[in-house]
Amino acid sequence: MTRPLIRTMTVIGVGLIGGSFARALKGSGAVERVIGVDRDQENLKTALELGVVDEAAPSLADGVRAADLVFLAVPVRSVAAVVAELAPHLAGGCIVTDGGSVKDELVRQCEALLPAGVAFVGGHPIAGTEHSGAAASFAELFKGRRCILTPTATTDAAALQTVRRLWEAAGSRVESMDPLTHDRVFAAVSHLPHMVAYALVHAVAASAEEEENILAFSAGGFRDFTRIASSDPVMWRDIALMNRGPLLDLLDRYADELAALRQRVESGDGTWLEQFFRTSKRLRDEIT
Amino acid sequence: MTRPLIRTMTVIGVGLIGGSFARALKGSGAVERVIGVDRDQENLKTALELGVVDEAAPSLADGVRAADLVFLAVPVRSVAAVVAELAPHLAGGCIVTDGGSVKDELVRQCEALLPAGVAFVGGHPIAGTEHSGAAASFAELFKGRRCILTPTATTDAAALQTVRRLWEAAGSRVESMDPLTHDRVFAAVSHLPHMVAYALVHAVAASAEEEENILAFSAGGFRDFTRIASSDPVMWRDIALMNRGPLLDLLDRYADELAALRQRVESGDGTWLEQFFRTSKRLRDEIT
């Protein structure tokens, strides 16, 4: 049992991420008491019954008043509204942190909304499962997974250190990155691939309306390849909107690559095509 | 032991597909004797030593002279040249068939090149592994997998029936489709996804040159998603060139979907984006 880093932590949104963070930190002794807040009263009741949280608060104001640290695990586009609502009720010295997958706009919103004496630290744990809700949460979710913290020039150093220790207590390997770099990285390795997959399903589905055999033969590789097009539409709407700038850059770059490829297919340039595919294979095989 | 359907089968290209077909048909008793031909003498020697083939022929002409059936398992763009070379040496009544993954142009080439009295049946077994060569072949490769035969108006009915029985003897579920329909279906469910993945790796790699963190974070979902960009560059060059028409149609349709999506990301149209993602998810989840 470590000496607690935090006496009272309030988790806003006790789903897979918020619930797992609560379980991990209570389990490791890094946090003494967890208060849960959730729009979904059924989910909050489940969290309380399962012992994911020690207390279920009836409102945001009630939930955060006694908090030494607030963990925001709500959809990225809800964060600003939630922070605006809870800000007046925070005690001085409180730390607010989050687990959202888009950071630049979100961090700027939070820093602007929180009063002096309250520190904000942006975070993004690279972890998840296909399930959601408090019942799906488990203490080991973050074990061995990376968590990126996104401090800015104004981030309080002590608060940053505390949040880092909490993620380490949850088993994460913690890295730091400025918020915009974070968003550019995830636009490339995650957000663009999701857009690519969503658009691909649409194109193939449109073709399948003309040729029914397409559906019959989409069960193999196509189904595997488009797995990420089954991701939560609301979450991905929010990510696309919140990470617009970096995502548009990547979408344009990708459209250029695709147009170049299309041109060489049309002109029948086998030398170019082989080289293009060979380079892709090499680059992809280099990823470890 | 079934009564043999074919006395002597010659396999041109004794790799994963050709070797596995030979093993499966000898194993089931559907074929009595297998002659192997291969540009790669080392591979052919291995095939002989492993008993994949009963005889290794020194040349195409020698290999096909005694054949009741010739199975072409060479790259799709080599088929025409191989057929032109072997055509003068075939016995009357011989059946020629193939296992290429593009059919329309290939079938027309073969039908034009083969002499009267020799039947051609186009085929495409939907099976494979990441390995290649005779040593990677195994009799069960086609078991339970689909094989598409692509007869045309001029295909000999008896030859078609024989080829169908051979694939059934290898354990395949055989379906028929006209060659162009086949190519449209596979442009959608396989060829377009490969192009999409190859272009995606290029776009992300170009971004990674500016932002090194991108490489560090590409090990997770991105690596899984782009697995098919590790496919054989020469094979995919040939597929892109041989299935140009249907592939260009799909590439254009896909580029349109992507441009529409980009437009709504730029304009911040959350309602449209959520609907687009929701439709993708529903369509993808419907694939069984």
UniProtKB/TrEMBL annotation, chains A, B:
<protein>
    <submittedName>
        <fullName>Prephenate dehydrogenase</fullName>
        <ecNumber>1.3.1.12</ecNumber>
    </submittedName>
</protein>
<dbReference type="Pfam" id="PF20463">
    <property type="entry name" value="PDH_C"/>
</dbReference>
<dbReference type="InterPro" id="IPR046826">
    <property type="entry name" value="PDH_N"/>
</dbReference>
<feature type="domain" description="Prephenate/arogenate dehydrogenase">
    <location>
        <begin position="7"/>
        <end position="288"/>
    </location>
</feature>
<dbReference type="GO" id="GO:0008977">
    <property type="term" value="F:prephenate dehydrogenase (NAD+) activity"/>
</dbReference>
<keyword id="KW-0560">Oxidoreductase</keyword>
<dbReference type="InterPro" id="IPR008927">
    <property type="entry name" value="6-PGluconate_DH-like_C_sf"/>
</dbReference>
<dbReference type="InterPro" id="IPR003099">
    <property type="entry name" value="Prephen_DH"/>
</dbReference>
<dbReference type="InterPro" id="IPR036291">
    <property type="entry name" value="NAD(P)-bd_dom_sf"/>
</dbReference>
<dbReference type="InterPro" id="IPR046825">
    <property type="entry name" value="PDH_C"/>
</dbReference>
<dbReference type="Pfam" id="PF02153">
    <property type="entry name" value="PDH_N"/>
</dbReference>
<dbReference type="InterPro" id="IPR050812">
    <property type="entry name" value="Preph/Arog_dehydrog"/>
</dbReference>
